[in-house]
Automatic annotation (TrEMBL):
It holds the Pfam family C1-set. It comes from the Eukaryota. This is Ig-like domain-containing protein. Residues 5-92, 101-203 form the Ig-like domain.
Length: 214
């Protein structure tokens, strides 16, 4: 059984957090008998939950508004069936409101990218802090006044460093977009924070990325 945490795409674009609890590896008869339940901070919740059963898996999705999600510290999903020990998965949200993370964006040098419009440009957003906290990282593409919806990058698990912790998000865009768009932005929101997102903007025309708050 797996418990999938919310993604930045849903939180930033739809102002909601969706968690998925998926049970696999059972025969269909056993899956149909399984009941998946949810707890938030030790309290059982039954609202805003949807469930789907497919061949080989059963998924329960818990949805909370972004405002509600700010106050959540722990989520547990449990799979229960007759005459079996419940299987549980826990998600602990690491918060450190008041500790400002440092956000930087790094770009592969031009000579390290392939030529032609079909080539990709890789942007790396590095978020570092003196304490461990969970971050939601979303990417924006600007073209004049037109702004894309937030996109998810490839986000990695936190790493312990000598100065604290760091999280990396990798975002790939085409060479055509890199040449066309005015700005790319890495946007970072610390879980549970009431502060505005922290952003780092970069473009082909900038020799250095610029930092601003949104």
């Amino acid at each position: 059984m797996t418990l999938k945490p919310p993604i930045a795409y849903e939180i930033f674009n739809n102002n909601e957090a969706k968690l998925e609890c998926k049970m696999t590896g059972q025969d269909q008869t056993a899956l149909n008998k399984i009941q998946i339940t949810w707890q938030i901070d030790g309290r059982t919740v039954t609202d805003n939950i949807s469930e789907t059963t497919n061949s080989g898996d059963k998924t329960s999705t818990l949805t909370r508004s972004r405002t509600e999600w700010q106050s959540v510290n722990n989520v547990r999903c449990s799979a229960n069936s007759d005459n079996t020990t419940p299987v549980t998965r826990d998600l602990t949200i690491h918060k450190a409101d008041g500790v400002e993370p440092k956000v930087t964006v790094h770009i592969l040098p031009e000579e390290d990218t392939n030529t032609g419009d079909s080539a990709e440009v890789t942007l790396v957003c590095l978020v570092s802090s003196s304490v461990q906290q969970d971050y939601f990282i979303g990417w924006l593409e600007y073209s004049g006044e037109k702004v894309s919806t937030y996109n998810d990058g490839n986000n990695f698990l936190p790493l312990k460093t000598k100065d604290g912790f760091s999280v990396t998000s990798i975002y790939k865009t085409s060479k055509e977009k890199w040449n066309k768009y005015d700005m790319f932005s890495c946007n970072v929101w610390a879980a549970g924070s009431k502060r505005l997102m922290k952003s780092r903007n970069v473009s082909k025309g900038l020799s250095n990325s610029t930092e601003c708050k949104k």
